[in-house]
Structures are given as structure tokens and as C-alpha cells.
Amino acid sequence: MWKRKISIKEQYGTLEHFLKGDEPCHYIGQRYIEGTNFYARREWRGVKDTAFAFYKWLCTWVKMAIFVMHDPVRIAKAFWKYRWLSAYLAAPMMVDKWIEGDRGEALRADLYALDCMISDSTDTLWKSLRADRRLGETKWSDVTVAFDYTLPKHIIFGFPGYYAINMQQHAAFMLPLMRKQLGCYYVDQAVACGIPGDMCTLPLVEVGVAVENEYPDIGNCWLTTNNPCDANMMDNTAMWRALSNDGKKAVHPFTTPLMYDDPTTKELGVHEVYSAIEFLEQQFGVPFNWDTFIEHIEDTNEFNRGSLNRWDIYAKSDNGALNSVVQGLFRIYFYQQGGTKYFKKANKKINRVFEKCVRKNIHPFPLARHRALAWSCGSTYYAWPGCPEGRGFDETGEKHVYIVTLGNGCSVKPVCIAQRKYEILNVELKSGDVVSDVLAALPENTRSDVYRIILRGEAAEPPQPDAIISAVGERFFSLQVRDETRLKRDVWESAGEDNLRGRFLMRLKTAFDEAKTDAEREKITQAARWGLAALDNREEVVRHDDQKA
Known about the structure:
Helices cover 47% and strands 11% of the residues. The chain starts with 7 loop residues before the first helix and ends in a 5-residue tail after the last strand. Helix 17 crosses helix 18. The protein is an alpha/beta fold. The chain has helices at residues 8-12, 15-20, 47-69, 72-81, 91-98, 104-130, 167-173, 175-178, 180-192, 201-211, 230-234, 236-243, 265-284, 290-316, 324-337, 341-359, 434-441, 465-472, 500-514, 518-535; strands at 144-147, 163-166, 221-225, 250-254, 400-407, 409-416, 422-428, 450-456, 458-459, 478-483, 486-487, 541-544. Among the domains are: 1-30, no CATH class; 131-287, Rossmann fold, CATH 3.40.50; 382-419, no CATH class; 422-544, no CATH class. It has a 4-stranded parallel β-sheet, sandwiched between helices. A 4-stranded mixed β-sheet has the order 7-8-10-12, covered by helices on one side.
């Protein structure tokens, strides 16, 4: 059948389209060989953008070449010993994959971020391999320490001349991102050792690398942590055996506070930082340098200010220049690597791109459905209402389920479905008539609830809990009465009597007279009151709704 001849303009667009890499000539940049995921050519993005992308592509290869040239023999041994290292040969292709479709300011911002991560990775990999005893004895091992990859390396900057390596970062975390098939091998090794195959594949890869004994042997100690998840904590056993040489190296657990809104979080965090510092001081034999540490923290804060500014732009406009994949990885990478010099430089470049986009109202991703990808353990929020029905006096008050509505936003509505609730009511005795004081303190609508009434204050005679239950018990599904009153008479008046009560009080009175502080005397007095209550057989009385009065 005859086909109409298609003109060059129809195929390729105008010269302007070609020079800019616009949509009419997009197929020029179709990189994949049909039926495969292999590239046939580089993506055409227009003259300017293609030249910039090609330049950064060459820079990646140069960084990788410099990495090898540090010590070609040692690096060759590492490639032979650690199969995961071969995945990094795909780093240039990984970069191309993550910037596919990028143009203009988006291309520059993404490549600045990726170039930073490539620079940091090659630097970290070299520091890791040069300190690796498996590749031959080296002076660098004694000044290098192994860190869990979810533990930021900020602390190490307080020890100038010492280096921290986040062990799982490059051997496991980055591996599936560059060569997913290789990650499958380590998953198989972990499952073969009995690790459940249905848990997150990332910890499985980490365990598999440990099982294969493919973590570099560096330093004389290891810092681990409880982040980021239960599966990761479970694989710490395998990691401990691998990174501590079965306990031959010192290990310090750095417990990261997870309850961010708890008032003790800051206190615990500070304690853990000081504890880790003390541990490293003992291992290195040198004091912590607060000046270099604070200098690094100032750089970190500057990076964070830049990040927050970028998040403000994402929140308010379509001027954000990092694509969601690169933005998410860049954020995680910074957290895990602790903010090295490469991030400081990249942060300034990326911020300039964002500022330009805002100033000129450039929309790098006009068709994007989502502006940014906010993933990390620190940005994951959940709501757990607890048990919808109270089960004891440690679960007092109303209990709820949450009705969550997703749509244009998210709304969370608590709904109480409990048939009854547990409550504790403290009643201060004032009038001299215990029942009247209790009735005056009772709220309304308690018929279906379980209550514990605690009597407090002073009483001339011990209250009778059973009398109180008889008087008010019908107003509750279940009622407990606990007497914690103090007798108005002198607690020591029977001390010295020739009976059990007198001898008991005499021993406590002696301790009371020898006490040096008011707090000690208060504790002894309270003990005397509890003892007298026990001797008077004043115990808790319980009556349920189905019991006779």
C-alpha cells in the first residue's frame, strides 16, 4: 500500500525545535533498542542541555577513574572479592535513568545533586577500601570506624584525622538502585540462612552481604543504632557478627529517640550523643574536638536551611527544580552521609537554580502530578488509637477508633465506640461524712462505667469501703474503693507498746528520728500508715453489678 512521504519538518520539527530539544523531535532522543532496555544512543535534549548532560556524564567517568587510580592493585582485589562493587560500573547509566526527560533548570539541579552523590560515593568507597584489612594490612584501619548507615556521621567530625564509614550504604542500600538483579543474589543468601523472605528486601540484602562476609573489615569498633525499622533491627544480629568479627571488636548501640513529641526525647538524644562520644574517645585515645564538630554542624545547619527553603518553594509553587526521585534520594543520602564538603558545594548550586526558577517563574515540571517525594522514617506519620475498649485502670478515659477520609487532603476523626470506660476518681475527705464527700465528687452518667474511688485526706476513723459501695455502688457497672486516708491521731502514739503494732511502730520511729531529710521522714511516715492500715485489715473491696449487696 502506498504511504505518503513524510517531510523532514514533520519528522524532526523545525531547526529551533532541534536546537532546543522540544517535543516535535523527541524521537531523536529515543534511546532504547526496541524490545530491550538497552540504550541505543544518548537522549537528545537540545544542543545546550545535551552538552551539559554529556559533560556531567564524562565527569562521572573521571571520578570513577580517579577512584581506581588511587591504588589499582587494591581496587582490583576489591572487585574480585566484593561482587557488589561491580554494580558501581553502572553509575553513569543510573544517572542517565534518573534524569530521563529533564530539561533546562531541572536538568542542572538534578545533575548537581547526582554529581554530589557520585563524588561523595567514590570518596567514601575509597576510604572504605583503603582501610580494609581483607585487602591487606593498612595504617588507615586504625583511624577508621564502622557506622550503621542510618546513623549520621556528624560525630566523627569531632575527631579530626578519623573517618567514619556507613557500612551498608554502598554495599547494600545503593546496590538495588544501580543493579537490582545483583540485589536478588544477596536476598537469596539471607533467606537461605532462615531470615523470613517476606520482610523488606533492603534488610535482606544487608543480611545477605553479611552472610557472604562481603563487608570490608575496617576499624576496631562499630556503632549501631535502632533505626530505621523493626526489620532493620532484626538484621543487626547478622550485622553484629560480620562487623564485630563475632564480638572481637567493641560495639556501641546508639539509641535514636523515635517518639519525636515526647518531652524526654531531647534529653535522651543528648545523652546518646555524649555516650557515643565517650565511647569513641576511649577507642581512639584522643579527646573530642568541639571546635571542629561545631564548625561541621554549622555547615549542616546551612544545608538544612537551604533544604527548608526548597521545601517552601515546593509547598507554594511549581518552581521546584529537583525531580521527585533525585530530591528524595538526595535528602536521604545527606542524612546518611552526615553532610560532607560535597553537599555544601552542591547545596549552593541547587539553591541558585531554585532562586532563578522563582525569580523568573520557571516551571521545570509543568505536567508533574506531585511536586516532591517526602519519604524517610522522620517524615512518616501514623495514628494508632490503641484498644477501642479499655481493659483496665491503666487504660482510663474514652477510647476511640479513627475514621480517616482521603481525598483532597486528609481528615482524621476520632469516634468513640466503647461500651464502658475505666476511670479513677480521687475523693478528698472534708466534711467528716465519707459518703457525702463521695456523692459530691461523683460525675453524672457513670452507670455503664468501671470506677476506682480512692479516698484521700485525713479521717478520724478508718473509712468503711463496703459501706460506700452499698451507698453508691448502683451508679456503676463495677466499683472499687481504695482507702488511702491518714488517721488524724498521731501515727506514733502506739509506738513502744508490748504488741505487734507497738514493736512495728517503734522500729520505724527509730528510723524516723535518725532520718536526715524531710523526704526520708515522709517516706517512713507513709510506711507506718500503710502498715497500720494492713494491721487494721483495711483492704480494697470490690463489687460488680451482678453481685448482691
